[in-house]
C-alpha cells in the first residue's frame, strides 16, 4: 500500500527528475520541485492517506501524519538518483524578501528554544514544590537560581552567538561581542532603571549594559557577522587570524554600545509597550484578539516574529503571557476540527482528519489547519472564535508560564505551581466553545464518494 502511495505522489510531483529537494518534518513531506507546472495538485490531494496539501515558504508540503510520513519519505528517496539539495536552502531561493527575513529570524531564535524550555520547566517544578509546602534552604535556592537565571542573564550573548552562526560569522566572536553588551564593568541596565546606578558618561554618550535586550543583540549579531565576512574578502590570509577578529570585535563593540544598542533599545521598548498595551486591554479584549488571530499568523508564517517578543518577556519579567494565548488559539482550532470531523460520515475522511488533529495537542498545528479547518471557512472561523474566548479567559485569569517554544500538552510541566488548573480550564473553554460554534454553523453532507461541506445559511 505504501509503495503505491509513494509512487502516486512521485508521479504527481512531476517524476523523480523534477525533484530538487526532499525532506520531512513530524507530519509533512516537504518538497521543492524544479518545474511547478509539472505538479498535479489534484492527484496529490486525492492520493490515499494524504490528509492535505499546501504550498508555503517555497515548499510543497504534503500532510501524511506521524509515522507514515517517515515511511513515504524513505520510499520516495529510494527512487531518486544522486544527491538532492537541502530543502531548506532550495526553498529559501524561492522566498520573497519578507519571507526570507522571517525565516532568518526563526533560524536565529529556534536554536535557543531547548535551553529556554528546560529553564522554564525547572521554574515550574520549583514553583510546584513550593506550593506543596517545601521550603528551600538559602544554599539550595541559590543552586536552583543558577539553573533558572543563567540563561536569561546571558541571553543577549546567546542571541549574538546564534546570529553570527546563522549569517556566516565565527560563532565564538559573536559570543564575545554578546558578552561585551552585558559586561559586568558597565552599569547594569536593571540597576540604572531602578535608580541604583548611573549611566557611564563618555563625552556626549551615556553608556550602560544591555541586560534583557533582544533586538539590539540581534542587530549586533547580524551586522557583526556581515562585517566579519566583508573583512575576510580583503584581509590578507597571512594576518587574517589576528586582524579579522580584532577589527570585528572592536568595531562591533563600539557600534553596539554607542549606536546600535541605544537606538534599537528604543525600538524594542516601543514594540514591547505596544504588545503589553494590547494584552492588557480591559475585559480580556487584548487576549481575545491575540487568541483568535494567532493561528492566522501561523498560516501566513508570521508567527516566527513573535519569538522576539516572547524572549523579551522572559528576559525582563520572567514570564511569557503569549505562551498561554498561543495555546488558547490552538485549542480553538482543535475544538472546531474535532467537532467538524465527528459530524462527517465518510470514514476515510474522518481517519485522515484525526491524524491531522493529533499533532495539534503537541504544538504542531499546520496539519490541522491546512488539512481540516482551512478546508471550510466557517470551521476555521469557529476555531478563531474559540481561540478568542480562551484568550480572553487567559488574560483575565493572568495565565502565564516562564517558558517558550512548547505549547498545549508539552507545556503542562511549565505550569506546575503556576496556574496549571486555570491553564487546563482555558484549553477546555477554547475547545468547547469552538466545538459548540462549529456544530451550530457547519453541517456536513455527502456527495457521491467525495465529502463536501454545505454551510448553513
TrEMBL record:
Ranges for domain PTS EIIB type-1 come to 3-86
The GO terms describing molecular function are:
kinase activity; protein-N(PI)-phosphohistidine-sugar phosphotransferase activity; protein-phosphocysteine-trehalose phosphotransferase system transporter activity
**Which cellular compartments is it found in?**
Cell membrane
Keyword ATP-binding belongs to the record: no
Mark the transmembrane ranges: 105-125, 145-164, 171-190, 210-227, 239-261, 281-302, 322-342, 354-372, 379-400, 420-442
In its UniProt record, which GO terms are filed under biological process? phosphoenolpyruvate-dependent sugar phosphotransferase system; trehalose transport
Q: What is its main location?
A: membrane
Question: Where does the record place the PTS EIIC type-1 domain?
Answer: 103-457
Mind naming one GO cellular-component term on file for this protein? plasma membrane
Keyword field: Cell membrane, Kinase, Membrane, Phosphotransferase system, Sugar transport, Transferase, Transmembrane, Transmembrane helix, Transport
Which CDD domains does the record cross-reference, listed alphabetically? Answer: PTS_IIB_glc
What the entry lists under InterPro entries is as follows:
Glu_permease_IIB, PTrfase_EIIB_Cys, PTS_EIIC, PTS_EIIC_1, PTS_IIB_1, PTS_Sugar-Specific_Components
What's its membrane topology?
A: Multi-pass membrane protein
Q: Where is the active site?
A: 25
Protein name, per record: PTS system sucrose-specific IIB component, Glc family /PTS system sucrose-specific IIC component, Glc family
Name the source organism. Vibrio hangzhouensis
Amino acid at each position: 500500500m505504501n509503495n503505491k502511495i509513494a509512487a502516486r505522489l512521485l508521479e504527481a510531483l512531476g517524476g523523480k527528475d523534477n525533484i530538487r529537494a526532499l525532506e520531512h518534518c513530524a507530519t509533512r513531506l516537504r518538497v521543492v520541485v524544479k518545474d511547478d507546472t509539472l505538479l498535479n495538485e489534484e492527484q496529490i490531494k486525492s492520493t490515499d492517506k494524504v490528509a492535505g496539501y499546501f504550498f508555503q515558504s517555497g515548499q510543497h508540503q504534503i500532510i501524511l501524519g506521524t509515522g507514515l510520513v517517515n515511511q513515504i519519505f524513505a520510499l520516495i528517496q529510494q527512487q531518486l538518483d544522486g544527491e538532492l539539495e537541502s530543502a531548506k536552502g532550495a526553498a529559501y531561493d524561492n522566498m520573497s524578501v519578507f519571507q526570507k527575513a522571517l525565516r532568518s529570524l526563526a533560524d536565529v531564535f529556534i536554536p535557543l528554544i531547548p535551553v529556554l524550555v528546560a529553564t522554564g520547566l525547572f521554574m515550574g517544578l520549583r514553583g510546584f514544590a513550593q506550593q506543596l509546602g517545601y521550603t528551600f534552604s538559602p544554599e539550595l535556592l541559590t543552586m536552583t537560581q543558577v539553573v533558572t537565571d543563567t540563561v536569561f542573564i546571558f541571553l543577549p550573548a546567546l542571541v549574538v552567538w546564534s546570529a553570527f552562526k546563522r549569517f556566516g560569522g565565527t560563532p565564538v566572536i559573536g559570543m564575545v561581542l554578546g558578552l561585551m553588551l552585558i559586561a559586568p564593568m558597565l552599569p547594569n541596565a536593571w540597576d540604572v532603571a531602578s535608580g541604583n546606578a548611573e549611566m557611564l558618561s563618555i563625552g556626549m554618550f551615556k553608556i550602560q549594559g544591555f541586560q534583557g535586550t533582544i533586538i539590539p543583540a540581534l542587530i549586533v549579531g547580524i551586522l557583526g557577522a556581515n562585517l566579519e565576512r566583508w573583512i575576510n574578502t580583503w584581509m590578507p590570509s597571512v594576518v587574517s587570524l589576528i586582524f579579522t577578529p580584532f577589527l570585528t570585535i572592536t568595531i562591533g563593540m563600539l557600534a553596539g554600545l554607542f549606536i546600535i544598542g541605544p537606538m534599537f533599545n528604543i525600538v524594542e521598548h516601543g514594540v514591547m509597550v505596544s504588545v503589553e498595551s494590547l494584552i492588557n486591554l480591559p475585559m480580556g479584549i487584548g487576549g481575545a484578539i491575540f487568541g483568535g488571530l494567532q493561528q492566522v499568523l501561523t498560516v501566513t508564517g508570521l508567527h516566527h516574529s513573535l519569538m522576539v517578543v516572547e524572549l523579551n518577556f522572559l528576559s525582563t519579567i520572567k514570564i511569557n503571557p503569549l505562551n498561554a494565548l498561543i495555546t488558547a488559539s490552538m485549542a480553538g482550532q482543535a475544538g472546531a476540527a474535532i467537532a467538524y470531523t465527528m459530524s462527517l460520515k465518510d470514514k476515510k475522511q474522518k481517519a485522515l482528519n484525526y491524524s491531522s488533529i493529533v499533532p495539534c495537542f503537541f504544538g504542531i498545528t499546520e496539519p490541522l489547519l491546512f488539512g481540516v479547518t482551512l478546508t471550510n471557512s466557517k470551521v476555521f472561523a469557529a476555531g478563531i472564535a474559540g481561540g478568542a474566548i480562551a484568550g480572553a479567559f487567559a488574560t483575565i485569569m493572568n495565565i502565564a508560564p516562564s517558558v517558550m517554544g512548547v505549547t498545549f500538552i508539552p507545556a503542562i510541566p511549565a505550569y506546575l505551581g503556576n496556574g496549571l488548573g486555570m491553564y487546563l480550564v482555558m484549553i477546555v473553554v477554547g475547545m468547547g466553545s469552538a466545538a459548540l460554534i462549529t456544530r451550530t454553523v457547519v453541517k456536513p453532507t455527502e456527495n457521491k464518494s467525495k465529502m463536501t461541506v454545505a454551510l448553513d445559511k
